[in-house]
Specification:
single chain, alpha+beta, Nuclear Transport Factor 2, Chain: A, globular, 6 strands, 3 helices
């Protein structure tokens, strides 16, 4: 298999994260289905498990609406066909009628699938107060 240089792979993963952010801001089901593995797991900052379809449904039904999402301090480590991204996110929006304006630290795990494409398989976030 022809491997890209690590910096190219990191750029692909950073671009994927920007596409995901755009898909959250301006709901894009197709982009989310391409970016998130079918067995994607999300553990939110309250410790709640959210499956891929639950997440997509909440965004599509506007149960969660994002006004802005800013990525900061992104760090990516690649281990053959696995990658880990850590960083900070500043998210502004609302859940139901409750507004939020929060900073989070996160860990996102990517796996390079059999088709050669990276997909996010797991994500965990923690609220931080000293942003």
């Amino acid at each position: 298999m022809n491997q890209l240089p690590e910096n190219d792979e990191k750029n692909i993963l950073l671009e994927m994260e920007q596409v995901r952010i755009g898909a959250y801001l301006d709901f894009n089901r197709q982009a989310l289905e391409e970016l998130l593995a079918s067995d994607y797991d999300y553990i939110n900052s309250n410790g709640k498990f959210v499956a891929r379809e639950q997440l997509i449904s909440a965004l599509e039904n506007r149960e969660v609406v994002f006004r802005s999402i800013d990525l900061d301090e992104a760090r990516i480590r690649i281990y053959e066909n696995a990658a880990v991204m850590t960083g900070r996110l500043h998210e502004v929006g609302k859940t139901g009628s409750e507004p939020f304006d929060e900073w989070f630290r996160f860990t996102r795990v990517f796996i390079k699938q059999a088709d050669g494409n990276w997909r996010s398989v797991a994500y965990h976030s923690t609220k931080i107060s000293d942003a």
